[in-house]
Design a protein that fits this description.
236 residues; two-stranded antiparallel ribbon; single chain; alpha+beta; 1 helix
Length: 236
Amino acid sequence: MNAETVGGVSATANPVANSSGSVTNQAIQVLQGPYITNTYGGGIQCQGPTRNFTPYVTGSVSASRPYEDYYNDPVYDVTDNFGAFDSDGNDTGDGILDNPGDVSFYKRTRTGQKDNYSVGLGFSMTWSTPTDKKLQDLCKEAASSNIAMMKQLTANKRLDFEIARLKNCGELKLKGIQFHPKSPYHSVCADVMVNNPPGHKHPHVHAIPSVSRQTSTPESPLSSRAEDLGAPLGTE
């Protein structure tokens, strides 16, 4: 009898090895941002140090569906009690299964199936700074000078405006022209004062002559007598 057909069942060696697995590669990419650039006008731009802070969260989930904790593993009937006889004439096995393919019962077997979860938390940080400090100091000095110049130009513009307002308001007031007190533009010239109009000196003092007392002649008392009237008037 050949070994590969013992009892009518193939016994050919056929080893099978299965291997499965999964690999997940995750990478965090850190991008360098541009330098912070400050513009001060006049073409002056200064770049300062830059700090990049990048938090990240990574996660993965792997699961099998449908999920089964256990499965029923069939146990087949391998009885061999018939098919041949012994020397006494009793039934004995002949090497061939009596009920091939029949399932005697099912054995509850754990699958080991499970869900896999993974979460990763972290952050990446980079610090970028210019290496030439002298150029940075020169740029900052130029920026400070340019800001001071802009402030002075603004002050000059303000002074020109106030002088023009004073001149125009003064000339109008000399001519007797002004905004109505209830006008919203009355405050434009409200603080302008005209101190020396033409023909008027300010401050000035007028001399007021004192009045001397003079003795007045008392009035003659009234009289009702005719002789007190004097000589009679002549008539022609």
